[in-house]
Amino acid sequence: MKKVYKVENVDCAHCAMAMQNFILKVDGVESATLNFLTKRLTIELDESRIDEIMVEVEKACKKVDREVYVVK
After folding, report:
1. pLDDT per position in the chain (72 positions), as tens?
2. Sheet containing 29-35: which strands, arranged edge to edge?
3. DSSP label at 66?
4. Given 7, 21, 61, 69, which is the most exposed site by the fewest CB atoms within 10 A?
5. What's the CA gap between 13 and 10, in Å, rounded?
6. What is the DSSP string of 1-56?
7. Does the global pTM surpass 0.85?
């Protein structure tokens, strides 16, 4: 399933790329793109585990910047 989320407090393109790389390592994520300019995360994931996966995605983002959060 493909979903688009807004991501708040992403401060630089380098951080966005680092977050994207961590997100891609989350079990159940098939693909992910975090666009720094639009502050949008486009993600393909296992629909049956969406809530569980999104918790892990937010944790992955916080590895780079503790102030970042995904608007669900």
Report:
1. 999 999 999 999 999 999 999 999 999 999 999 999 999 999 999 999 999 999 999 999 999 999 999 998
2. 29-35, 40-45, 2-8, 69-71
3. T
4. 21
5. 8
6. -EEEEEEE----HHHHHHHHHHHHTSTTEEEEEEETTTTEEEEEE-GGGHHHHHHH
7. yes
